[in-house]
Design brief:
The complex is a heterodimer of chains A (about 300) and B (about 280). Chain A is built from 13 helices and no strands. With about 300 residues, chain A is an all-alpha fold. Chain A has a domain of about 180 residues: MetI-like (MetI-like fold), CATH 1.10.3720. Chain A starts with 20 loop residues before the first helix and ends with a helix. Chain B is built from 13 helices and no strands. Chain B has a single domain, classed as MetI-like fold (Orthogonal Bundle), CATH 1.10.3720. The chains are: A mainly alpha (about 300), B mainly alpha (about 280).
Amino acid sequence: MAVAAIETPAPNAVSPKRRRGPLVGLIFVSPALLFLSAFMLYPVSNLVWLSFRDYSPLRSAATPWVGMVNYTEALTNPETYSSIWTTLLFTLGAVVSQMTIGLVSAVCLAATTFHFANRPAAVLNRFFAGFFILPFAAPAVVAAVVWKMLLDPQIGPVDTMIGAPVAWFSDYALISVIVVDAWKTIPFVTFILYAAVMSIDHAQFEAAKLDGANAWKEFWYVTIPSILPILVVTTAFRTVDAFTKAFDIVFATTGGGPGDQTMVFPLFIWRAAFYSLHFGAASALAVIAIIISGLAGAGLLFFLRSEQNT
Amino acid sequence: MSLLHRGVKPLPFWSLVFLVLSALAALGPIVWMILNAFKLDDEINLIPPTFLPHAFTFKNFFQLFTQFHFLTLTYNSVIVSISVVLLSLTLGGSAAYGFSRHPFFGSTALFSAVLVTRMVTPASFVLPLYLLMSRLHLINSLVALVVGITVLNLPFVIWILKPFFDSLPREIEEAAQLDGVGPIGIFWRFAIPLAGPAFKTVALFSFIAAWTDLLIPITMSTRPAAWTLTAGVVQMQTGFKIYWGALMAGGLYLTLPSFVIAIAMQRSLTRGFRTTF
Protein backbone atom coordinates (compact mmCIF):
# COMPACT_ATOMS: atom_id res chain seq x y z
CA MET A 1 0.00 0.00 0.00
CA ALA A 2 1.18 3.42 -0.89
CA VAL A 3 1.03 4.79 2.61
CA ALA A 4 3.72 2.40 3.66
CA ALA A 5 6.01 4.27 1.39
CA ILE A 6 6.65 7.24 3.52
CA GLU A 7 6.83 6.10 7.08
CA THR A 8 10.54 5.89 7.66
CA PRO A 9 12.36 4.68 10.73
CA ALA A 10 12.71 7.43 13.33
CA PRO A 11 16.00 9.19 12.85
CA ASN A 12 17.46 9.19 16.30
CA ALA A 13 16.02 6.24 18.15
CA VAL A 14 16.88 6.22 21.82
CA SER A 15 20.18 4.45 21.98
CA PRO A 16 19.31 0.88 22.85
CA LYS A 17 20.63 -0.45 26.11
CA ARG A 18 21.36 -4.10 26.36
CA ARG A 19 19.77 -5.27 29.55
CA ARG A 20 18.84 -8.91 29.57
CA GLY A 21 21.04 -10.50 27.00
CA PRO A 22 20.05 -11.64 23.54
CA LEU A 23 17.43 -14.19 24.54
CA VAL A 24 14.68 -11.74 25.46
CA GLY A 25 14.91 -9.96 22.14
CA LEU A 26 14.71 -13.26 20.29
CA ILE A 27 11.62 -14.27 22.24
CA PHE A 28 9.83 -11.13 21.07
CA VAL A 29 11.05 -11.33 17.51
CA SER A 30 10.80 -15.08 16.93
CA PRO A 31 7.04 -15.43 16.28
CA ALA A 32 7.26 -13.02 13.35
CA LEU A 33 10.54 -14.55 12.20
CA LEU A 34 9.10 -18.06 12.27
CA PHE A 35 6.07 -16.88 10.33
CA LEU A 36 8.17 -15.08 7.71
CA SER A 37 10.56 -18.03 7.49
CA ALA A 38 7.74 -20.49 6.90
CA PHE A 39 5.73 -18.40 4.46
CA MET A 40 8.32 -16.17 2.82
CA LEU A 41 11.86 -17.47 3.22
CA TYR A 42 11.05 -21.14 2.67
CA PRO A 43 8.81 -20.48 -0.36
CA VAL A 44 11.46 -18.20 -1.87
CA SER A 45 14.16 -20.86 -1.44
CA ASN A 46 11.76 -23.24 -3.12
CA LEU A 47 11.37 -20.65 -5.87
CA VAL A 48 15.12 -20.56 -6.44
CA TRP A 49 15.19 -24.36 -6.54
CA LEU A 50 12.31 -24.39 -9.02
CA SER A 51 13.97 -21.80 -11.24
CA PHE A 52 16.56 -24.44 -12.22
CA ARG A 53 13.87 -26.98 -13.05
CA ASP A 54 11.44 -27.57 -15.85
CA TYR A 55 7.99 -27.62 -14.27
CA SER A 56 4.79 -27.32 -16.26
CA PRO A 57 2.13 -28.91 -14.07
CA LEU A 58 -0.31 -29.38 -16.95
CA ARG A 59 2.19 -31.48 -18.87
CA SER A 60 3.81 -33.45 -16.10
CA ALA A 61 4.40 -33.43 -12.36
CA ALA A 62 8.09 -34.17 -12.95
CA THR A 63 10.60 -31.41 -12.24
CA PRO A 64 13.78 -32.32 -14.11
CA TRP A 65 16.94 -30.26 -13.55
CA VAL A 66 17.59 -28.00 -16.52
CA GLY A 67 20.37 -25.80 -15.20
CA MET A 68 20.32 -22.21 -16.39
CA VAL A 69 17.86 -22.81 -19.22
CA ASN A 70 15.00 -20.86 -17.57
CA TYR A 71 17.33 -17.93 -16.98
CA THR A 72 18.86 -17.92 -20.46
CA GLU A 73 15.37 -18.15 -21.93
CA ALA A 74 14.10 -15.32 -19.75
CA LEU A 75 17.10 -13.16 -20.59
CA THR A 76 16.96 -13.83 -24.33
CA ASN A 77 13.18 -13.48 -24.59
CA PRO A 78 12.32 -10.08 -26.12
CA GLU A 79 9.04 -10.10 -24.14
CA THR A 80 11.03 -9.88 -20.90
CA TYR A 81 12.77 -6.72 -22.05
CA SER A 82 9.63 -5.21 -23.53
CA SER A 83 7.88 -5.86 -20.21
CA ILE A 84 10.68 -4.24 -18.22
CA TRP A 85 10.65 -1.32 -20.66
CA THR A 86 6.87 -0.97 -20.27
CA THR A 87 7.29 -0.98 -16.49
CA LEU A 88 9.97 1.72 -16.73
CA LEU A 89 7.72 3.86 -18.96
CA PHE A 90 4.84 3.35 -16.56
CA THR A 91 7.04 4.26 -13.59
CA LEU A 92 8.40 7.35 -15.32
CA GLY A 93 4.96 8.57 -16.39
CA ALA A 94 3.36 7.81 -13.03
CA VAL A 95 6.11 9.31 -10.86
CA VAL A 96 6.67 12.47 -12.93
CA SER A 97 2.94 13.26 -13.22
CA GLN A 98 2.23 12.48 -9.57
CA MET A 99 5.15 14.42 -8.16
CA THR A 100 4.52 17.45 -10.38
CA ILE A 101 0.78 17.72 -9.82
CA GLY A 102 1.15 16.71 -6.18
CA LEU A 103 3.71 19.47 -5.62
CA VAL A 104 1.56 22.11 -7.33
CA SER A 105 -1.49 21.03 -5.31
CA ALA A 106 0.50 21.11 -2.08
CA VAL A 107 1.85 24.59 -2.76
CA CYS A 108 -1.60 25.86 -3.76
CA LEU A 109 -3.10 24.34 -0.65
CA ALA A 110 -0.44 26.04 1.47
CA ALA A 111 -0.97 29.33 -0.38
CA THR A 112 -4.70 29.37 0.36
CA THR A 113 -3.96 28.41 3.94
CA PHE A 114 -1.71 31.48 4.28
CA HIS A 115 -4.12 33.74 2.47
CA PHE A 116 -7.30 32.90 4.33
CA ALA A 117 -5.55 32.94 7.68
CA ASN A 118 -6.94 30.97 10.60
CA ARG A 119 -10.52 29.83 10.71
CA PRO A 120 -11.62 30.08 7.07
CA ALA A 121 -8.39 28.37 6.07
CA ALA A 122 -9.02 25.51 8.45
CA VAL A 123 -12.52 25.02 7.07
CA LEU A 124 -11.34 25.33 3.47
CA ASN A 125 -8.48 22.90 4.00
CA ARG A 126 -10.68 20.34 5.63
CA PHE A 127 -13.03 20.76 2.68
CA PHE A 128 -10.27 20.12 0.10
CA ALA A 129 -8.58 17.43 2.18
CA GLY A 130 -11.95 15.70 2.45
CA PHE A 131 -12.19 15.59 -1.34
CA PHE A 132 -8.59 14.59 -1.89
CA ILE A 133 -8.78 11.75 0.59
CA LEU A 134 -11.45 9.93 -1.42
CA PRO A 135 -9.26 8.70 -4.32
CA PHE A 136 -6.56 7.91 -1.78
CA ALA A 137 -8.98 5.69 0.14
CA ALA A 138 -10.61 4.06 -2.89
CA PRO A 139 -9.33 0.53 -3.50
CA ALA A 140 -7.15 0.28 -6.65
CA VAL A 141 -9.63 -2.19 -8.11
CA VAL A 142 -12.46 0.30 -7.70
CA ALA A 143 -10.41 3.08 -9.27
CA ALA A 144 -9.81 0.72 -12.17
CA VAL A 145 -13.42 -0.25 -12.84
CA VAL A 146 -14.73 3.30 -12.42
CA TRP A 147 -12.19 4.67 -14.89
CA LYS A 148 -12.96 1.81 -17.23
CA MET A 149 -16.53 3.03 -17.30
CA LEU A 150 -15.56 6.73 -17.53
CA LEU A 151 -13.31 6.02 -20.52
CA ASP A 152 -15.58 3.50 -22.22
CA PRO A 153 -15.97 4.40 -25.92
CA GLN A 154 -19.71 3.60 -25.94
CA ILE A 155 -21.19 4.62 -22.61
CA GLY A 156 -18.38 6.68 -21.09
CA PRO A 157 -19.00 10.36 -20.28
CA VAL A 158 -15.44 11.39 -21.23
CA ASP A 159 -15.87 10.45 -24.88
CA THR A 160 -19.29 12.09 -24.90
CA MET A 161 -17.72 15.30 -23.63
CA ILE A 162 -14.96 15.35 -26.23
CA GLY A 163 -17.39 14.18 -28.89
CA ALA A 164 -15.31 11.33 -30.28
CA PRO A 165 -15.45 7.62 -29.49
CA VAL A 166 -11.85 7.07 -28.39
CA ALA A 167 -11.11 3.57 -27.05
CA TRP A 168 -8.72 4.83 -24.39
CA PHE A 169 -7.76 1.51 -22.85
CA SER A 170 -6.99 0.10 -26.32
CA ASP A 171 -5.54 3.01 -28.28
CA TYR A 172 -3.84 4.85 -25.42
CA ALA A 173 -3.56 1.95 -23.01
CA LEU A 174 -0.39 2.84 -21.12
CA ILE A 175 -1.35 6.50 -20.75
CA SER A 176 -4.81 5.52 -19.50
CA VAL A 177 -3.32 3.19 -16.90
CA ILE A 178 -0.95 5.96 -15.80
CA VAL A 179 -3.91 8.35 -15.49
CA VAL A 180 -5.78 5.92 -13.23
CA ASP A 181 -2.71 5.40 -11.06
CA ALA A 182 -2.12 9.17 -10.91
CA TRP A 183 -5.74 9.85 -9.95
CA LYS A 184 -5.41 7.44 -7.05
CA THR A 185 -1.94 8.50 -5.86
CA ILE A 186 -1.71 12.29 -6.34
CA PRO A 187 -3.70 13.00 -3.15
CA PHE A 188 -1.21 10.99 -1.12
CA VAL A 189 1.74 12.94 -2.56
CA THR A 190 -0.19 16.18 -1.97
CA PHE A 191 -0.77 15.41 1.71
CA ILE A 192 2.89 14.66 2.33
CA LEU A 193 4.24 17.68 0.48
CA TYR A 194 1.62 19.96 2.03
CA ALA A 195 2.79 18.92 5.48
CA ALA A 196 6.36 19.63 4.37
CA VAL A 197 5.55 23.10 3.00
CA MET A 198 3.62 23.99 6.15
CA SER A 199 6.57 23.14 8.35
CA ILE A 200 8.91 25.60 6.60
CA ASP A 201 10.18 28.24 8.98
CA HIS A 202 8.26 31.45 8.36
CA ALA A 203 11.34 33.63 8.77
CA GLN A 204 12.66 32.34 5.46
CA PHE A 205 9.68 33.77 3.59
CA GLU A 206 10.05 37.06 5.46
CA ALA A 207 13.69 37.25 4.46
CA ALA A 208 12.84 36.48 0.85
CA LYS A 209 10.20 39.18 0.93
CA LEU A 210 12.71 41.72 2.27
CA ASP A 211 14.98 40.79 -0.61
CA GLY A 212 12.11 41.63 -2.93
CA ALA A 213 11.28 38.10 -4.07
CA ASN A 214 8.03 37.52 -5.93
CA ALA A 215 5.86 34.41 -5.53
CA TRP A 216 7.75 32.49 -8.21
CA LYS A 217 11.13 33.28 -6.68
CA GLU A 218 9.81 32.39 -3.25
CA PHE A 219 8.72 29.04 -4.60
CA TRP A 220 12.00 28.42 -6.37
CA TYR A 221 14.48 29.72 -3.77
CA VAL A 222 12.66 29.07 -0.48
CA THR A 223 9.98 26.40 -0.84
CA ILE A 224 11.81 23.95 -3.09
CA PRO A 225 15.15 23.93 -1.21
CA SER A 226 13.34 23.63 2.13
CA ILE A 227 11.30 20.60 1.14
CA LEU A 228 13.95 19.06 -1.10
CA PRO A 229 14.80 16.15 1.25
CA ILE A 230 11.15 15.14 1.50
CA LEU A 231 10.69 15.64 -2.23
CA VAL A 232 13.62 13.32 -2.94
CA VAL A 233 12.56 10.64 -0.46
CA THR A 234 8.96 10.69 -1.69
CA THR A 235 10.10 10.44 -5.31
CA ALA A 236 12.39 7.54 -4.47
CA PHE A 237 9.63 5.66 -2.65
CA ARG A 238 7.09 6.32 -5.38
CA THR A 239 9.58 5.07 -7.96
CA VAL A 240 10.22 1.79 -6.16
CA ASP A 241 6.51 1.34 -5.47
CA ALA A 242 5.43 2.09 -9.03
CA PHE A 243 8.05 -0.30 -10.39
CA THR A 244 7.35 -3.21 -8.05
CA LYS A 245 3.66 -2.91 -7.27
CA ALA A 246 2.07 -2.00 -10.60
CA PHE A 247 -0.45 -4.82 -10.66
CA ASP A 248 -4.02 -4.19 -9.48
CA ILE A 249 -4.93 -1.32 -11.79
CA VAL A 250 -3.40 -2.94 -14.88
CA PHE A 251 -4.90 -6.33 -14.05
CA ALA A 252 -8.36 -4.84 -13.63
CA THR A 253 -8.33 -2.55 -16.69
CA THR A 254 -6.30 -3.86 -19.62
CA GLY A 255 -5.04 -7.18 -18.25
CA GLY A 256 -1.68 -6.29 -19.83
CA GLY A 257 -3.08 -5.71 -23.31
CA PRO A 258 -3.78 -4.82 -25.96
CA GLY A 259 -1.06 -7.16 -27.15
CA ASP A 260 1.52 -6.59 -24.46
CA GLN A 261 1.36 -2.79 -24.41
CA THR A 262 0.67 -2.59 -20.68
CA MET A 263 2.34 -5.85 -19.62
CA VAL A 264 4.12 -4.52 -16.54
CA PHE A 265 6.70 -6.84 -15.01
CA PRO A 266 4.73 -8.02 -11.94
CA LEU A 267 1.83 -8.96 -14.20
CA PHE A 268 4.25 -10.60 -16.67
CA ILE A 269 5.53 -12.90 -13.91
CA TRP A 270 2.06 -13.64 -12.63
CA ARG A 271 0.79 -14.56 -16.09
CA ALA A 272 3.80 -16.75 -16.82
CA ALA A 273 2.89 -18.68 -13.68
CA PHE A 274 -0.89 -18.75 -13.55
CA TYR A 275 -1.90 -18.15 -17.15
CA SER A 276 0.75 -20.02 -19.14
CA LEU A 277 1.40 -22.42 -16.24
CA HIS A 278 5.15 -22.49 -16.86
CA PHE A 279 6.19 -22.63 -13.24
CA GLY A 280 9.89 -23.14 -13.96
CA ALA A 281 10.13 -20.19 -16.33
CA ALA A 282 7.98 -18.04 -14.03
CA SER A 283 10.29 -18.89 -11.12
CA ALA A 284 13.32 -17.61 -13.00
CA LEU A 285 11.46 -14.38 -13.79
CA ALA A 286 10.39 -14.04 -10.14
CA VAL A 287 13.97 -14.56 -8.95
CA ILE A 288 15.12 -11.87 -11.38
CA ALA A 289 12.42 -9.53 -10.03
CA ILE A 290 13.43 -10.27 -6.43
CA ILE A 291 17.06 -9.48 -7.23
CA ILE A 292 16.25 -6.23 -9.05
CA SER A 293 13.72 -4.96 -6.51
CA GLY A 294 15.73 -6.22 -3.53
CA LEU A 295 18.79 -4.32 -4.70
CA ALA A 296 16.73 -1.21 -5.37
CA GLY A 297 15.07 -1.52 -1.95
CA ALA A 298 18.38 -2.04 -0.15
CA GLY A 299 19.82 0.94 -2.02
CA LEU A 300 16.85 3.05 -0.97
CA LEU A 301 17.23 2.05 2.68
CA PHE A 302 20.94 2.76 2.60
CA PHE A 303 20.21 6.15 1.05
CA LEU A 304 17.62 6.93 3.76
CA ARG A 305 20.00 6.00 6.56
CA SER A 306 22.79 8.18 5.18
CA GLU A 307 20.29 10.97 4.62
CA GLN A 308 19.16 10.80 8.27
CA ASN A 309 22.68 10.63 9.64
CA THR A 310 23.75 13.83 7.94
CA MET B 1 1.80 28.14 13.34
CA SER B 2 2.96 31.69 13.02
CA LEU B 3 2.71 31.53 9.25
CA LEU B 4 -1.04 31.65 9.45
CA HIS B 5 -1.08 35.00 11.18
CA ARG B 6 1.16 36.87 8.80
CA GLY B 7 0.18 37.98 5.37
CA VAL B 8 2.13 35.75 2.98
CA LYS B 9 -0.05 35.70 -0.13
CA PRO B 10 1.46 33.95 -3.12
CA LEU B 11 -1.08 33.85 -5.96
CA PRO B 12 -4.16 32.97 -3.91
CA PHE B 13 -6.55 33.34 -6.84
CA TRP B 14 -4.89 30.86 -9.19
CA SER B 15 -4.21 28.56 -6.27
CA LEU B 16 -7.89 28.50 -5.51
CA VAL B 17 -8.81 27.87 -9.15
CA PHE B 18 -6.33 25.00 -9.33
CA LEU B 19 -7.58 23.52 -6.06
CA VAL B 20 -11.21 23.67 -7.13
CA LEU B 21 -10.33 21.93 -10.42
CA SER B 22 -8.32 19.25 -8.64
CA ALA B 23 -11.07 18.72 -6.12
CA LEU B 24 -13.50 18.21 -9.02
CA ALA B 25 -11.08 15.78 -10.67
CA ALA B 26 -10.71 13.87 -7.42
CA LEU B 27 -14.42 13.81 -6.77
CA GLY B 28 -15.78 13.28 -10.30
CA PRO B 29 -15.11 9.56 -10.70
CA ILE B 30 -16.47 8.83 -7.22
CA VAL B 31 -19.65 10.79 -7.96
CA TRP B 32 -20.00 8.97 -11.27
CA MET B 33 -19.71 5.62 -9.51
CA ILE B 34 -22.32 6.56 -6.92
CA LEU B 35 -24.80 7.94 -9.49
CA ASN B 36 -24.49 4.93 -11.77
CA ALA B 37 -24.82 2.45 -8.94
CA PHE B 38 -28.45 3.60 -8.75
CA LYS B 39 -29.22 3.51 -12.49
CA LEU B 40 -30.76 0.67 -14.48
CA ASP B 41 -28.53 -0.81 -17.18
CA ASP B 42 -30.98 0.40 -19.85
CA GLU B 43 -30.39 3.95 -18.71
CA ILE B 44 -26.61 3.47 -18.49
CA ASN B 45 -26.58 2.31 -22.12
CA LEU B 46 -28.31 5.48 -23.33
CA ILE B 47 -26.28 7.75 -25.60
CA PRO B 48 -25.47 10.39 -24.49
CA PRO B 49 -25.15 9.26 -20.88
CA THR B 50 -27.51 10.72 -18.28
CA PHE B 51 -26.07 12.45 -15.23
CA LEU B 52 -28.65 12.01 -12.46
CA PRO B 53 -30.53 8.69 -12.45
CA HIS B 54 -33.93 9.07 -14.17
CA ALA B 55 -35.30 5.99 -12.49
CA PHE B 56 -33.64 5.59 -9.12
CA THR B 57 -33.18 1.89 -8.35
CA PHE B 58 -31.64 -0.48 -5.81
CA LYS B 59 -31.80 -3.33 -8.31
CA ASN B 60 -28.02 -3.33 -8.81
CA PHE B 61 -27.39 -3.94 -5.14
CA PHE B 62 -29.83 -6.84 -5.10
CA GLN B 63 -28.12 -8.24 -8.17
CA LEU B 64 -24.80 -8.23 -6.26
CA PHE B 65 -26.25 -10.65 -3.75
CA THR B 66 -28.37 -12.76 -6.09
CA GLN B 67 -25.95 -13.10 -8.99
CA PHE B 68 -22.46 -12.19 -7.78
CA HIS B 69 -22.21 -14.05 -4.43
CA PHE B 70 -21.77 -10.87 -2.38
CA LEU B 71 -23.05 -12.47 0.81
CA THR B 72 -20.27 -15.07 0.75
CA LEU B 73 -17.72 -12.53 -0.46
CA THR B 74 -18.61 -10.10 2.32
CA TYR B 75 -18.30 -12.84 4.92
CA ASN B 76 -14.92 -13.87 3.47
CA SER B 77 -13.61 -10.30 3.31
CA VAL B 78 -14.65 -9.54 6.89
CA ILE B 79 -13.17 -12.75 8.32
CA VAL B 80 -9.94 -12.44 6.31
CA SER B 81 -9.44 -8.74 7.09
CA ILE B 82 -10.02 -9.12 10.82
CA SER B 83 -7.74 -12.17 10.97
CA VAL B 84 -5.01 -10.32 9.08
CA VAL B 85 -5.28 -7.39 11.51
CA LEU B 86 -5.05 -9.64 14.58
CA LEU B 87 -2.19 -11.74 13.20
CA SER B 88 -0.24 -8.71 11.91
CA LEU B 89 -0.56 -6.83 15.20
CA THR B 90 0.37 -9.83 17.34
CA LEU B 91 3.40 -10.86 15.30
CA GLY B 92 4.40 -7.37 14.17
CA GLY B 93 3.82 -5.67 17.53
CA SER B 94 5.97 -8.08 19.49
CA ALA B 95 8.68 -8.15 16.83
CA ALA B 96 8.82 -4.35 16.63
CA TYR B 97 9.06 -4.19 20.42
CA GLY B 98 11.86 -6.75 20.45
CA PHE B 99 13.79 -4.87 17.76
CA SER B 100 13.30 -1.60 19.63
CA ARG B 101 13.89 -2.54 23.26
CA HIS B 102 15.93 -5.74 23.29
CA PRO B 103 18.40 -5.58 20.43
CA PHE B 104 20.56 -8.68 20.05
CA PHE B 105 23.48 -9.65 17.90
CA GLY B 106 22.42 -9.23 14.28
CA SER B 107 19.07 -7.64 15.09
CA THR B 108 19.84 -4.49 13.09
CA ALA B 109 20.70 -6.55 10.03
CA LEU B 110 17.59 -8.65 10.57
CA PHE B 111 15.42 -5.54 10.85
CA SER B 112 16.89 -4.18 7.61
CA ALA B 113 16.27 -7.52 5.91
CA VAL B 114 12.62 -7.41 6.97
CA LEU B 115 12.35 -3.87 5.59
CA VAL B 116 13.86 -4.86 2.26
CA THR B 117 11.19 -7.54 1.78
CA ARG B 118 8.62 -4.72 1.77
CA MET B 119 10.23 -3.34 -1.37
CA VAL B 120 10.38 -6.65 -3.21
CA THR B 121 7.88 -7.22 -6.03
CA PRO B 122 4.95 -8.95 -4.28
CA ALA B 123 4.04 -10.84 -7.44
CA SER B 124 7.28 -12.81 -7.16
CA PHE B 125 6.24 -14.26 -3.77
CA VAL B 126 2.89 -15.64 -4.82
CA LEU B 127 3.96 -18.55 -7.04
CA PRO B 128 5.99 -20.38 -4.35
CA LEU B 129 3.38 -19.46 -1.76
CA TYR B 130 0.72 -20.95 -4.02
CA LEU B 131 2.72 -24.17 -4.35
CA LEU B 132 3.20 -24.36 -0.57
CA MET B 133 -0.51 -23.80 0.05
CA SER B 134 -1.48 -26.40 -2.52
CA ARG B 135 0.83 -28.92 -0.83
CA LEU B 136 -0.90 -28.08 2.46
CA HIS B 137 -4.32 -28.47 0.74
CA LEU B 138 -5.20 -24.89 1.61
CA ILE B 139 -6.04 -23.61 -1.86
CA ASN B 140 -9.58 -22.18 -1.81
CA SER B 141 -9.46 -21.77 1.94
CA LEU B 142 -9.55 -18.51 3.87
CA VAL B 143 -6.43 -19.62 5.76
CA ALA B 144 -4.36 -19.26 2.59
CA LEU B 145 -5.70 -15.73 2.12
CA VAL B 146 -4.96 -14.71 5.71
CA VAL B 147 -1.43 -16.14 5.58
CA GLY B 148 -0.67 -14.68 2.15
CA ILE B 149 -1.88 -11.18 2.95
CA THR B 150 -0.18 -11.18 6.35
CA VAL B 151 3.14 -12.16 4.75
CA LEU B 152 2.91 -9.10 2.50
CA ASN B 153 1.68 -6.84 5.33
CA LEU B 154 3.93 -7.88 8.23
CA PRO B 155 7.13 -6.06 7.17
CA PHE B 156 5.12 -2.85 6.90
CA VAL B 157 3.67 -3.30 10.39
CA ILE B 158 7.10 -3.90 11.93
CA TRP B 159 8.46 -0.91 10.05
CA ILE B 160 5.79 1.45 11.39
CA LEU B 161 5.70 0.17 14.96
CA LYS B 162 9.43 0.02 15.74
CA PRO B 163 9.95 3.83 15.60
CA PHE B 164 6.86 4.25 17.79
CA PHE B 165 8.37 2.02 20.46
CA ASP B 166 11.69 3.85 19.99
CA SER B 167 9.96 7.14 20.76
CA LEU B 168 8.14 5.93 23.90
CA PRO B 169 9.71 7.11 27.16
CA ARG B 170 11.64 4.34 28.84
CA GLU B 171 11.15 5.55 32.41
CA ILE B 172 7.89 3.71 33.04
CA GLU B 173 9.28 0.44 31.76
CA GLU B 174 12.47 0.87 33.76
CA ALA B 175 10.46 1.55 36.91
CA ALA B 176 8.40 -1.56 36.28
CA GLN B 177 11.58 -3.52 35.77
CA LEU B 178 12.89 -2.33 39.15
CA ASP B 179 9.61 -3.53 40.65
CA GLY B 180 10.43 -6.98 39.35
CA VAL B 181 8.07 -7.16 36.37
CA GLY B 182 9.41 -9.50 33.68
CA PRO B 183 10.04 -8.35 30.10
CA ILE B 184 6.88 -9.95 28.76
CA GLY B 185 4.82 -8.41 31.56
CA ILE B 186 6.32 -5.01 30.78
CA PHE B 187 5.46 -5.43 27.11
CA TRP B 188 1.92 -6.53 27.85
CA ARG B 189 1.00 -4.17 30.67
CA PHE B 190 2.96 -1.03 29.83
CA ALA B 191 4.30 -0.93 26.28
CA ILE B 192 1.12 -2.02 24.48
CA PRO B 193 -1.17 0.47 26.25
CA LEU B 194 1.36 3.26 25.61
CA ALA B 195 1.57 2.33 21.95
CA GLY B 196 -2.22 2.21 21.69
CA PRO B 197 -2.63 5.03 19.14
CA ALA B 198 0.08 3.53 16.93
CA PHE B 199 -1.58 0.12 17.14
CA LYS B 200 -4.87 1.69 16.15
CA THR B 201 -3.35 3.34 13.08
CA VAL B 202 -1.56 0.16 12.04
CA ALA B 203 -4.71 -1.88 12.61
CA LEU B 204 -6.69 0.39 10.30
CA PHE B 205 -3.97 0.35 7.61
CA SER B 206 -3.73 -3.43 7.84
CA PHE B 207 -7.50 -3.70 7.57
CA ILE B 208 -7.55 -1.58 4.41
CA ALA B 209 -4.58 -3.53 2.99
CA ALA B 210 -6.40 -6.82 3.53
CA TRP B 211 -9.79 -5.51 2.44
CA THR B 212 -8.41 -4.19 -0.87
CA ASP B 213 -5.81 -6.86 -1.67
CA LEU B 214 -6.24 -8.41 -5.08
CA LEU B 215 -3.07 -10.41 -5.72
CA ILE B 216 -3.55 -13.04 -3.00
CA PRO B 217 -7.25 -13.91 -3.54
CA ILE B 218 -6.96 -14.16 -7.33
CA THR B 219 -3.96 -16.45 -6.86
CA MET B 220 -5.05 -18.61 -3.94
CA SER B 221 -8.75 -18.96 -4.75
CA THR B 222 -10.23 -20.46 -7.88
CA ARG B 223 -13.86 -20.47 -6.71
CA PRO B 224 -16.20 -17.62 -5.68
CA ALA B 225 -16.70 -19.47 -2.39
CA ALA B 226 -13.15 -18.45 -1.38
CA TRP B 227 -12.90 -15.06 -3.06
CA THR B 228 -12.90 -11.76 -1.26
CA LEU B 229 -14.96 -8.77 -2.40
CA THR B 230 -11.98 -7.33 -4.31
CA ALA B 231 -11.61 -10.48 -6.39
CA GLY B 232 -15.39 -10.61 -6.81
CA VAL B 233 -15.55 -7.07 -8.20
CA VAL B 234 -12.72 -7.76 -10.66
CA GLN B 235 -14.35 -10.97 -11.81
CA MET B 236 -17.63 -9.13 -12.44
CA GLN B 237 -16.14 -7.49 -15.52
CA THR B 238 -14.57 -10.59 -17.04
CA GLY B 239 -17.94 -12.02 -18.12
CA PHE B 240 -19.39 -11.87 -21.60
CA LYS B 241 -21.58 -8.92 -20.70
CA ILE B 242 -20.55 -6.20 -18.26
CA TYR B 243 -23.37 -5.18 -15.91
CA TRP B 244 -22.15 -1.62 -15.41
CA GLY B 245 -24.78 -0.72 -12.84
CA ALA B 246 -23.98 -3.74 -10.72
CA LEU B 247 -20.25 -3.14 -11.21
CA MET B 248 -20.55 0.41 -9.88
CA ALA B 249 -22.74 -0.79 -7.01
CA GLY B 250 -20.13 -3.44 -6.21
CA GLY B 251 -17.38 -0.83 -6.34
CA LEU B 252 -19.31 1.44 -4.02
CA TYR B 253 -20.01 -1.43 -1.64
CA LEU B 254 -16.31 -2.40 -1.61
CA THR B 255 -15.23 1.22 -1.09
CA LEU B 256 -17.53 2.23 1.77
CA PRO B 257 -15.51 0.73 4.64
CA SER B 258 -12.31 2.32 3.27
CA PHE B 259 -14.04 5.71 3.05
CA VAL B 260 -15.38 5.48 6.58
CA ILE B 261 -11.96 4.53 7.92
CA ALA B 262 -10.11 7.17 5.89
CA ILE B 263 -12.45 9.99 6.92
CA ALA B 264 -12.30 8.89 10.56
CA MET B 265 -8.52 8.85 10.32
CA GLN B 266 -8.12 12.06 8.33
CA ARG B 267 -6.70 14.09 11.20
CA SER B 268 -4.31 11.44 12.43
CA LEU B 269 -3.34 10.73 8.82
CA THR B 270 -2.13 14.22 8.08
CA ARG B 271 -0.62 14.56 11.53
CA GLY B 272 1.15 11.22 11.06
CA PHE B 273 2.66 12.39 7.79
CA ARG B 274 3.87 15.51 9.49
CA THR B 275 5.61 13.76 12.37
CA THR B 276 7.28 11.01 10.38
CA PHE B 277 9.60 13.52 8.77
